[in-house]
Amino acid sequence: QVQLVESGGGLVQPGGSLRLSCAASGSIFSINAMGWYRQRPGKQRELVASITSGGSIRYADSVKGRFTISRENAKNMEYLQMNSLKPEDTAVYYCNAGVIRDEDSRYFELWGQGTLVTVSS
């Protein structure tokens, strides 16, 4: 099956850094846009950053200048480098990708299982 697997979450102190990784696996023909979402305690899920297959990037205002999204198309990988972390960045972070399955060329929007990032002193 085609799926996304996330890693890299954990506990970090304010001002620290974490790097999240997302690996798409399975019989994949291509991946269109990819992105990172997060759900903070008591809040709705929100877009953190997105990147198209051509490299166009958008960030939420709350993370501009601190987070960097990237992808390695040949590896079907997506990353989120998070620097200068703040307590309000505490959330479950989810990888998202639009995938065309190789076996039937069908398009699927996939979500990772989520990885918890806790920023606390």
Quickly count the helices.
0
Q: Which structural class fits the helix and strand makeup?
A: mainly beta
Overall pLDDT score:
96
Uncertain parts: none
Distance between the termini: 40 Å
Question: How would you describe what is shown here?
Answer:
There is one protein chain. By secondary structure, the protein is an all-beta fold. It is built from no helices and 11 strands. The strands form 2 sheets. Strands 2, 4, 5, 6, 9, 10 and 11 form a 7-stranded mixed β-sheet that branches. The protein has a 4-stranded antiparallel β-sheet with strand order 1-3-8-7, with no helix packed on it. The mean pLDDT is 96.
Give the gist of this structure.
With 121 residues, the chain is mainly beta.
List keywords for this structure.
121 residues; single chain; 58% strand; four-stranded antiparallel β-sheet; mainly beta; seven-stranded mixed β-sheet; 0% helix
Topology of this protein?
Elements lengths: L2 E5 L2 E3 L5 E8 L2 E12 L6 E6 L5 E3 L7 E6 L4 E6 L8 E11 L5 E5 L3 E5 L2
Parallel strand pairs: 2-11
Antiparallel strand pairs: 1-3, 3-8, 4-5, 4-9, 5-6, 7-8, 9-10, 9-11
